[in-house]
Amino acid sequence: MKIKLPVTLYQRILSILSFLLLAGQILCLILRWNHLPDEIPTHFGLSGQADAYGSKGSVILLPVISILIYLLMIFVEKFPELWNVPGHVTPENIGWIYGNVKSMLVSEKFGVCFIFFYINYCTVFCRDIGAWFLPVSMLYLAGTMVFFLRRAVHFK
């Protein structure tokens, strides 16, 4: 069944912030390109310190991956009828269930955009990402899914 979901204020704000993070990542790279050293960090270990280096051209891969993930998530958001959602979907609750899952997807898109923006920022400025980054990122992404999926399962 084809369903048209309204966009909530929460979804609109996070979508705008996600786009700004994506654009900021690209802009940061463009503005810093001439100031990049020939060798830049290409991987960060669990401690948050750079543990692999590559040519400055390798930093282009981060925005490319970000754009592809961003576009994929926008595509997925547009087709709620293809989602496998938790809980029992009825004609009475279909709008709420799908709206909840769309909010989850928008929240995850924001998280992914922030993660890639921050990694890009640290790479472009040759800084360590910090030991806090991986646990906080994973907590945000997993916590967002748990929050929205629990809401969907417990919705009456």
UniProtKB/TrEMBL annotation:
<feature type="transmembrane region" description="Helical">
    <location>
        <begin position="97"/>
        <end position="119"/>
    </location>
</feature>
<feature type="transmembrane region" description="Helical">
    <location>
        <begin position="53"/>
        <end position="76"/>
    </location>
</feature>
<dbReference type="InterPro" id="IPR012867">
    <property type="entry name" value="DUF1648"/>
</dbReference>
<keyword id="KW-1133">Transmembrane helix</keyword>
<keyword id="KW-0472">Membrane</keyword>
<feature type="transmembrane region" description="Helical">
    <location>
        <begin position="131"/>
        <end position="149"/>
    </location>
</feature>
<protein>
    <recommendedName>
        <fullName>DUF1648 domain-containing protein</fullName>
    </recommendedName>
</protein>
<dbReference type="Pfam" id="PF07853">
    <property type="entry name" value="DUF1648"/>
</dbReference>
<keyword id="KW-0812">Transmembrane</keyword>
<feature type="transmembrane region" description="Helical">
    <location>
        <begin position="12"/>
        <end position="33"/>
    </location>
</feature>
<feature type="domain" description="DUF1648">
    <location>
        <begin position="21"/>
        <end position="66"/>
    </location>
</feature>
